[in-house]
Amino acid sequence: MKIWFDTEFIEDGKTIELLSIGLVREDGATYYAEPMETDRTKASDWVLKNVLPHLSGPLKPRDSIASEIVDFAEADPEFWAYYCSYDWVALCQLFGTMMDLPKGWPMFCRDVQQVRVDLGIADLPKQFTTEHNALSDALWTKQAHDFLIGGVRVREVVK
């Protein structure tokens, strides 16, 4: 099952602290949550201005979020994100270390931006929903992925 996701977080160059996570499966099901343990007072001015206004709850314990994501992802998930490096770390940290990921999960995430560059596509579709809301961004990431992969299929048929 393909899953597109996004996170919002506080980072200081040494740590990444999850503020919110949104996921969408290829069947259209969605998931969104915010960890209640995150200290929002550590947010930078940019996060205060661009992210915190878009947080909408629910606030849940990190271990509950991790458990719910395992149920949501089902067996053998394939994770996709946009500029995925910090998002992947933030997601994996819900489970502890990389060695603590659920059985059957990959130890890497696929990146829509890398696919765009590899295909030589100049621009992705514009996002018309709220940026820096993890669920809105996850839905857009799926849209961008579908745009890229759809383009590959069209080019393959034309050749």
How would you describe this structure to a colleague?
The protein is of the alpha/beta class. The protein has one domain: 2-Layer Sandwich (Nucleotidyltransferase, domain 5), CATH 3.30.420.10. 37% of the residues lie in helices and 21% in strands. The chain contains five helices and six strands. The chain has helices at 45-50, 62-73, 85-92, 112-119, 134-158, and strands at residues 2-11, 16-25, 30-35, 59-60, 78-81, 110-111. Helix 4 packs parallel to helix 5 (134-158). The relative contact order is 0.20. The model is unreliable at 154-159 (pLDDT under 50).
User: Which consecutive residue ranges, at least 5 long each, have pLDDT under 50?
Assistant: 154-159
CATH class annotation: Alpha Beta
- Coarse structural class: alpha/beta
| N to C succession of SSEs | EEEHEHEHEHH
The CATH topology corresponds to Nucleotidyltransferase, domain 5
Q: How many structural domains can be distinguished in the coordinates?
A: 1
What Rg is obtained from the alpha carbons, in whole angstroms? 16 Å
Strand content range = 15-25%
> For the terminal residues, how far apart are their CA atoms?
29 Å
> How many β-strand stretches?
6
- Give the biggest beta sheet: 6 strands, mixed
Across the major sheet, the strand order is: 4-3-2-1-5-6
| CATH homologous superfamily (4th level) name | Ribonuclease H-like superfamily/Ribonuclease H
List keywords for this structure.
159 residues, alpha/beta, Nucleotidyltransferase, domain 5, six-stranded mixed sheet, 5 helices, 37% helix, globular, disordered C terminus
